[in-house]
Specification:
six-stranded mixed sheet, 6 strands, alpha/beta, single chain, 179 residues
């Protein structure tokens, strides 16, 4: 089992996230996230943004929104910041907007040593009637820097399921709305 410091070092020093972002699920989420950006203006917070595929796509369609990027400091985050520089109010590590209309936690929770803490923070940041796009990727081989234990997974999924109303679910990806 990796420590949190070892996991952070991996993300900072390897090109793993660049390649993962090019082929992984978050690229199929763009249009679904855009559909939940119903207000003329708002904040989209992309947590674990990597190279910011969601914000980059949505910013072209909703340039009046502010885009917040949250990830570990890395070359990937620097590239993400460059990609959305025209639209972004940027956050790194623990800098978040006071509230957000849409938050993405896609392919993120399993990499955290305390996913429930992140879930509480996201729900607390989400505006009433705001949308959370989330998943908790299962990886039985545990070869993808999974830091969360099965118990933490269950507790986090239970919390998010009880705290939010499920709007859509498919292929291990959920869209929930805050009451």
């Amino acid at each position: 089992q990796l420590t949190e410091a070892q996991a952070l070092a991996f993300y900072r020093e390897s090109d793993y996230m660049l390649w993962r972002n090019l082929v992984h699920r978050r690229h199929s989420a763009w249009r679904r996230v855009l559909r939940t950006m119903k207000m003329p203006r708002g904040n989209l917070l992309e947590v674990g943004c990597g190279i910011a595929p969601i914000s980059t796509y949505c910013a072209r369609h909703k340039p009046e929104w502010d885009y917040w990027l949250h990830d570990v400091a890395s070359p990937h985050l620097a590239f993400a910041i460059w990609r959305v520089r025209k639209y972004a109010v940027l956050g790194v590590l623990d800098v978040w907007p006071q509230e957000a209309q849409v938050i993405t936690l896609i392919d993120v929770l399993e990499h955290l040593a305390d996913p429930l803490k992140m879930a509480h923070h996201a729900v607390g940041t989400l505006r009433p009637n705001g949308y959370l796009h989330w998943n908790f990727v299962g990886n039985p081989r545990r070869n993808d820097l999974d830091l969360a234990t099965p118990e933490q997974r269950d507790e986090t999924v239970r919390y998010l399921s009880e705290a939010l109303d499920l709007v859509w679910e498919g292929e291990g990806y959920r869209v929930s709305r805050k009451r």
